[in-house]
Amino acid sequence: MNLSIVIPNYNGENLLKKNLSKVADVLSLYKNGEVEIIVADDCSTDDSIKIFKELNIKLKTQYPDMSFRILESERNLGFSSNVNKGVTGAKGEIVILLNTDVYPKKNFLTPLLAHFSDSNVFAVGCMDESIEQGKVILRGRGVGQWKRGLLIHSRGEVDKENTLWIAGGSGAFRRSTWEKIGGFNELYNPFYWEDIDLSYRALKNGYKIIFESKSVVIHEHEKGAIKSTYSDFKISSTAYRNQFIFIWKNITDSSMKLSHLLWFPYHIFSALLRGDLAFVKGILDAFILLPKIIKYSSIERKFFVLKDNQLLAPFKGEK
Question: Number of helices (H) and strands (E), helices first, in the chain?
């Protein structure tokens, strides 16, 4: 089974310098197929390209059986488009997405790849040892509840295999299925909700996604590209916008659609009362994209085999 490691990058020169060799070191232990590492660069303005080229010389000498490539964009595309570009350029049967601030532990591959013996498995997520304010928080499994007409997603406990989504920064995906269901939807650019959307579509199409607690990655949170590039208002309004894009595009159960419609005025009024203008901006931005949302929805829902309440039922009661 051939593997492609896709690392999306935007102005991550320090993280590339710190973690690319660690990724290569772990992947060099894989002997059951070819391995390539692709850095998908989203038109960085720092020295990311230069750093990669310097590392590339060293890594090619150190790991002659591995391939190292960089795919450069001429303009900044956003996370979804950048990852899609990387996956399109990949050759492996399995694509492993790793953000620049993530690197795997030594034995993470074997349990991760074992699940793909089942042809209906689309993606497998890793146990994310997330270093936050000096503490390690175990992440990687996601859950969701339908509340007040919205899908509220949150971290799930890591003692189960089922998950609502596979994180776009630390997960393995079957490339043929990725291509079949369309990869990340680029409506979500520049960031957020794209991995939840892809996972949800895969589940509604009848594919399996699995959380694997034995496949561990280290996630050393640093000041990332989002917070260093965008204002807090832009980040919040984008997150709100994408929440509504997700609902309008993916939710098909009549009762949930009615619930969303009935709660809609409440959410707007509540946002105005608390002065949350980012929420209002997010809704307006989602309305602007409504024709595109309807277009994608009409195409994608033809392949749905599960209802929303069936999909969410296993997560009922989890917070």
Answer: 12, 11
